[in-house]
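pinned: reference chain
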Amino acid sequence: MSTPNLIDNISRILASPLPRREALRLILGGVASAFAGMWAERAAAQSGACGTLHDPHDNCRRWQSPCSGGRCCESGSTCCYGRCCDSNHPYCCNGQCCSSKYACCGDTCCNPGEVCAGGHTCCKSGEKACGHNCCASNQTCCNGQCCDAGEVCVSGICCNPGERNCGGECCAPNRVCCNGHCCGTGETCVNGVCCTAGGTPCGNTCCEPGSVCCKNKCCPPGYTCVNGKCCGPGSKNCGGYCCPAENVCCNGVCCDAGEVCVNGICCSPGSNNCGGHCCPSGQTCCSGNCCKPGEVCCRIRWGRSWRYQCMPSKVSPYYPCFS
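pinned: its structure tokens
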């Protein structure tokens, strides 16, 4: 019971027509009840428990501050994502309690003397922050990376002293940087391509002496380039294709091994061209057809005209035939 309410109750009791003994009993009972409530509040404060509200919307005492999750933080502490940070670590760092805002490093707290390198990496005393990394005292920070001991930073990459940056790779003093690529020892840059002495640029590469560039690729020495293809030694161009030396080129077609060219087509030796296909040796060509053994080519009546047809050798004498 609050003090104003206690005084109001005493005034009402004294103004009532109750006997003095009864009125005194009620007054003493109200005072005792009020003191009991005050002692209960003090005991709750000493134990840290949450009790009667000073604000009807939280569960904390007047000297406490409400925190998420129904917690109550004591005076001097800070609410940090549902936890109370004490006065020694009052700064909230993404759910962690840090001693100061300078100790906050991502989602962790750096120890005294440490430096935040970004992210959640804390660099120890004597180290230096380099991007999100920590470099030792004898290392160089280069574009967020720590160079090895003795290396230097050259245009954003770690190289040995005297080397230069060539398209993101380190190029030694005795090597040539060619179109963003470091040539090998003894190579030169020819039209943006690294070549050995006497070599020929070929697309993105270089052909060695004696080889031929064929459609942006190098043919081995002794090969020739035919229609964008590398043909072996002795090969010939046959209709835009490679024809080996031992094969015959016949009307733009490379015959198979052992075949010969008979009036523009590839046939076996002894064959003859019969209307665009081969008649084997011993067979007769008859109006574009090859007569089989035992057949002859005969001139026969076909309606109002005549035609030649393969017929058995024993036929009517009316048909003029020849073998």
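why pinned: The radius of gyration is 53 Å. The helical segments are 3-15, 20-47.
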